[in-house]
Amino acid sequence: PVAIVVDAGYDQHTIEEEILRPFGFQVIERACHGDAAAVVKAVAGADAVLVRESPITEEALDAMPNCRVIVRYGVGVDNIDRDAAARRGIYVANVPDYGVEEVSDQTLALFFAVVRRVATRDRAVREGAWNVSRSEPMYRIAGRTLGIIGYGRIGAAFHRKCSTLGFARTLVHDSNVHELPFGAEHVELDELIEQADVISLHVPLRPSTQHIISRERIARMRPGTVVLNTSRGGLIDEEALAEALHSGHLGGAGIDVYSKEPPQRDHPLFTTPNTVLSDHTAWYSEASVSELQTKAAQEVARVFSGGEPL
Ligand code: NAD
What we know:
By secondary structure, the chain is α/β, with parallel strands linked by helices. The protein contains eleven helices and twelve strands. The protein has helices at about 15-20, 35-40, 60, 80-85, 100-115, 120-125, 155-160, 190-195, 215-220, 240-245, 285-305; strands spanning about 1-5, 25-30, 50, 70, 90-95, 145-150, 170-175, 185, 200, 225-230, 250-255, 275. It is elongated. The strands form two sheets. The chain has a seven-stranded parallel beta sheet, sandwiched between helices.
């Protein structure tokens, strides 16, 4: 059988080859750069498809009558016509759980960069400044209250990494999680919003979580609160967050994700004080790419060994 990799963008596919060799697979990469017509040609004859961003349309599915499984390198599968795949009995799988260490590390990195002013001090030192930190308030982490919204894989890993920082309290909002380690407390969302000094988002973006950090909730945050978002941009009313940073109501923000990506050059958070930004790279390390390739290939292997993908 043939596994076609549609523009994964990873240098090599030796990981996929090793996992799929026992099933007799040949692994071939074809770059399509998001072009639907190119995908139709690229996938012809595939028994399995591994795809990153390019669209897998009904027409593409028609071009691969032997295909048994399509795996998305990543979480979201909205580039794949799942209904059309289901009608043809093709499994659609994703990799929901890669890069947990990286995203929780990045959340911590953004947090430290914000509260210790790492990025602005770095620029200032290069420009000849020295010891002007009093113009930029820095606060002590120990004794503060941490708030974590969403306590799944990443939220829990972030909590574990924060557990030695001396936070006085950790408030968690996630109705699906019951046992909390390190003395954390379950609270309702609005209690967390009003009491936390640091608020970190780790919930998925759904219609019910869109703008969960609304203008109204931002207004009810404690003065000086730091907001961290490595989850999805649409969780926050970005305009309202920017206004609250400009006005000095909030103390800072660490942001990896934006409602539209890449963000436009005049994005409201590009000019706000004490804001540290990254480019949706929280998930990335060489190890997490290998993990992604491994887990994606394992989904193909699972189907070809007679199972259903998890
Ligand atoms: P997960 O599914 O393990 O955990 C999500 C948690 O959120 C679950 O425990 C769920 O109960 C909880 N939840 C859902 N809706 C909620 C709500 N309204 N209020 C409170 N809790 C709610 O997911 P994860 O692996 O921890 O990932 C979290 C998010 O991180 C993902 O949804 C994704 O958007 C984001 N992510 C970002 C990157 C990046 O590179 N920046 C990489 C991977 C994942």
